[in-house]
Amino acid sequence: METFETIVNQDDFPCLFGKKAVNALSTELLFVGKEKGVADLIAGLSSYVQKVRSWSLKYRIGKPLIVLFEKNDFGTLELEQLYAWDLLQQLHDQDPGPWPEEIPADLNSEHWTFSFLGMPLFINMSFPQHSVMKSRNLGSHIVFVINPRENFDQVAAGNSVSGQRIRDRIRSRSEAYNQGIKSQTLGVFGERGSLEIKQYQLEEPGALSHERCPFRMNIK
């Protein structure tokens, strides 16, 4: 956790909301063990979703869930990403809640987003082997930063001037932090051609390709 906080607290770290939450000590933490990976993930995310439902929208904006994975014996970025997607798939397959009626089941829809226990979420995946997309490297372990999708609609809505300004600022900082490299898959939720799932994991040489989606919908 110390390495994660050190990285996020760097002056040039791009995510301003993440920096603010870490400095305020307001993040929620979840540690996922090697042996009970998906069980830990289900229990921890279930607890988080239940708490989020009791919080005001203003309060929850400063309360992202930071998921730290114990397993870190991967040799490549692709293997790290395969492991992360496999756990996310298991989380979806074992979701005890209903899929939200307002979220399409089509991964190719610009309105699709991952959901658990009926709550739409955004999953930011960060990996130790990222060397080009350094903004997605938060230390020596895989890290998920999970926020309710509604948080982004509140602070950076795609159709608002203020939302555009905030996104532009953060993405400009990301490009600078990544030494001028700009991700080609970051988009705006709801815009035609912008797929949310491609924003969870970013690409670089050696990464898992977005050409074949590693996730499948399984709605019972």
UniProtKB/TrEMBL annotation:
This is YqcI/YcgG family protein. It comes from the Bacteria.
